[in-house]
Design goal:
285 residues, mainly alpha, elongated, disordered N terminus
Length: 285
């Protein structure tokens, strides 16, 4: 039947592209660089495939080809692909760029990505931010070597008028913060927190979710008491809308780090029978 034929075709495509990746991984020298580039252009068409397994196989093959012939030509092809209108194709392209960065080292990809961000076109800038987010998700603690390089780019994105820019930049900050937690990059993360924090009053559900994800990531990297100092300012604000946002942030802190918050609470003098002193904590300090 037609459906069975379709399933068999999609399975054969998955197998074919996984085989291409395997050849690029283990026998790259048997194929010329020009031929690998031709395969790269063919693979771009596969990013439009409806079946996720085909897209995944195509994306991982880019990493193997980049390792075989060097990342520059492959990266040039992928960056040009960020200009297309099809969203699925652009997202798959950003994942492929991140896989190239993971395979060949972030230093081969980040300079080209940051240069591409200068193009004043919405799709390209969003694609660059998405790719940067995936790169830092994949490389983890290696991000400590690149955090100071990408901070100006993230500053610009977090101040942009386009909410999608800010949403994607917040996702990048989250992955960056979780990757470099405990590695001595607190100064850059504090700087980024000052750009993330004004976005807590966003209305769009996607943006506000990304902002709170970034704050949770920074909570891990900077410690809950740093975030608490920002939260305490708005807990008793006259406006209900402001209070709701700040209490949501406080509840998140309380759920994840209730014990660590104790030392961050403000000191209150005793009032007659009401004793506010935390003697065991004061003894420890």
């Amino acid at each position: 039947c037609g459906f069975c034929l379709l399933v068999l075709l999609s399975l054969s495509f998955c197998f074919l592209y996984s085989q291409v990746g395997r050849i690029a991984d283990r026998g790259a020298e048997f194929v010329s660089a020009k031929e690998w580039m031709r395969i790269c252009f063919e693979l771009l068409e596969m990013l439009k495939a409806h079946k996720k397994a085909i897209r995944r196989a195509a994306v991982s093959t880019f990493g193997y080809i980049a390792r075989a012939i060097g990342p520059l030509d492959v990266l040039h092809t992928l960056l040009n692909n960020l200009k297309v209108q099809d969203r699925q194709m652009r997202v798959c392209t950003t994942v492929a760029i991140a896989i190239v960065a993971e395979t060949c080292g972030p230093f081969t990809v980040l300079p080209a990505l940051m240069n591409e961000y200068r193009v004043p076109e919405l799709n390209i800038q969003n694609g660059v931010l998405k790719a940067t987010s995936f790169v830092f998700e994949y490389i983890g603690e290696m991000g400590k070597d690149y955090i100071y390089a990408v901070t100006p780019l993230l500053e610009d994105a977090l101040m942009d008028r386009d909410p999608v820019h800010r949403q994607t930049a917040c996702a990048t900050v989250k992955h960056l913060a979780l990757g470099v937690a405990g590695l001595g990059c607190e100064d850059a993360l504090m700087h980024l927190l000052n750009f993330v924090w004004p976005n807590i009053f966003e209305e769009s559900p996607h943006v506000i979710q990304a902002v709170f994800d970034a704050i949770q990531g920074l909570m891990v990297a900077l410690g809950p008491n740093v975030i608490l100092q920002y939260v305490l300012q708005g807990l008793y604000h006259p406006a209900r809308k402001v209070r709701e946002v700040y209490w949501r942030a406080y509840n998140t802190l309380y759920m994840y780090n209730a014990d660590a918050l104790v030392m961050g609470y403000p000191y209150i003098a005793d009032e007659g029978e009401n004793m506010y002193a935390r003697t065991t904590l004061e003894l420890f300090i």
